[in-house]
Amino acid sequence: xxxxxxxxxxxxxxxxxxxxxxxxxxxxxxxxxxxxxxxxxxxxxxxxxxxxxxxxxxxxxxxxxxxxxxxxxxxxxxxxxxxxxxxxxxxxxxxxxxxxxxxxxxxxxxxxxxxxxxxxxxxxxxxxxxxxxxxxxxxxxxxxxxxxxxxxxxxxxxxxxxxxxxxxxxxxxxxxxxxxxxxxxxxxxxxxxxxxxxxxxxxxxxxxxxxxxxxxxxxxxxxxxxxxxxxxxxxxxxxxxx
Length: 242
Description:
Layout: E1 2-13, E2 18-24, E3 35-39, E4 45-49, E5 59-65, H1 72-81, E6 85-92, E7 108-114, H2 118-130, E8 136-143, H3 152-161, E9 165-170, E10 180-181, H4 184-191, E11 198-203, H5 206-217, E12 226-227, H6 230-233
Parallel strand pairs: 7-8, 7-11, 8-9, 9-10, 11-12
Antiparallel strand pairs: 1-2, 1-6, 2-5, 3-4, 3-6
């Protein structure tokens, strides 16, 4: 990863706790699915998936969840908001579609996101659209409540114009939500009961990634055909929690 200066274009709160940040970076090449590190003045380096695609350069997009004012994410957002430019390190990560997975001619590519794991999976999804990929691709995005859904304009456009399927699954039912609800893995398996010829990219918390993987393995998904940044830094917990 190399150190790069990025110009801050916009910092926008797009739902109750998710910020969409756009940066301009004139000296960056990356693959869809990779991440960058925001370098804070303290020396801390905080990773965020790049939520845009290479064809959108020099502009890149990040989605940052700020769960509370004392969090590291809050510190990152405040730092970016108060500076015209910031230092990043990029690119990083091997969870991308140029890692050889397409050479195996997969029958089906599953793109699975939990929460702001959306950022990485959106990048992969849009890149496959940009490449005019002709295979079967399904994007599943799981969130806890209807209030947690963000990037609604993008979702609307993707539903209209993208050639692949896109499903948002909210865990907790409510009067405000008229889409699919329940556990993310259950929705995937209802649609895809046999995953022997599928590959999957999964992005989210450690518990979400391994919990989803465990369920999909039962229906034929091979660990060798599943990719996640989580694999690089977190061992499989004994009792994964969805």
